[in-house]
Amino acid sequence: LTLVELRMRALAGQILEKPNWWNKVRDGEITDKWRREFVEQDAELVKKFWPELQQERDDDDEDKTWPHKNITEEQLNYIFDWLKWLADQRNTQTGIEMMHIQNVYQSYSLITSELREALLQGASILESIPEAEKDWHPGSNNQVLDLIHPSLHCLRIGKSLVKNTKTGSLYVPTVEEYINAREDLSFLYSPSRWMPHSVSIQHQWLPTDFSVSETGEVKHLSYINNLHPDDHKPLYSTITSILARFVPLWERVLSDVLSRQRPIIELDPYSWYEKGRATPEPELEDWVETPDAAYWEAWDVWCVAHEAWEHRKDPFICEPKPFTPPATENQVNFTLKGRKIQVIVKMANIVLTPEKPEYAGGSWHVEGMDNEKIVATGIYYYDSSNVTESKLSFRTAL
Predict the structure, then answer these.
(1) Which InterPro entries match (predicted)?
(2) Which partner for 238 in 5, 118, 151, 221 could form a disulfide, CB atoms 3.0-4.6 Å apart?
(3) Residue 315 in contact with residue 197, Cβ under 8 Å?
């Protein structure tokens, strides 16, 4: 994705965080105001990230996270036409709406107040244990309290007992036996060659099996790791009910992942430096029309100049085409109904006290490894009070 597209998505995301945005995007006076605000905001960010525009370009361009050219009318038109379409796609009953980030959905009204209260009661019981037994997350300065965490009682490869499904006997599988039993991992791993960093030969989180009926009802089929099924029976029911509300979200995410998605701005990387060059390429004849004695010296000078041009040249980024809804003929409509799904359950609290009134945030991480084969995640923030605004950030490799 280009910085131009990332800017368009970021600005659209600001609208999606506004109350009642799905109605406001149809009000011309409001959208005109937002357009003006975007132009002003963009101009300030261009100045912030590109103060050297009127000077010689520096060598720190790779750290820029905002385009150096101001936003255009074509880009603004696309943003607001896209937002109107997103408003049409919003589910008014569940509040499920597509986000500006690909394959991400959200809802502020998915969970009922009764279900939330039941979860709070269950969490309160998990919190009410002796201080010495509390599981503070490593590296959190005793601020993240893990209530349910799959690492506490995970599979320890080469040490945990496993039931042989054919004989019914218990045994401890070796690393090789574990890998060979996992057809999805065996082609990645070979002890004689190398071990991918994405495969653990030490641990694996254990999921809980849930069945999803043809009508969308969810039932837990096995133990939730680190949650006693008798002592916390009401919480089992609550978590299962919450997962039932998450199923439509996951279906939308997986449908998008399986469908072809086009970027907002489609590029031709083979020619994007050939059109409308903002930085002219040094011409070889400008440097080598010299007597033979000075030829190689001139060649070296040209090479240095060309290398600098390669680093600083600007690609040609075309304008987005007018927004059109995604084509439906290649859209995959994936359903979890009638399937058994595996879910890894976590619950955690961030605890602030007068002695520790601030939380610096967690570290960047990926949920699970190839061992767990996680294809989608869902997060429910069930309680937040007496704190300043918090946020959740995503990033991806490009």
Answers:
(1) DUF4246, DUF4246_C, DUF4246_N
(2) 118
(3) no
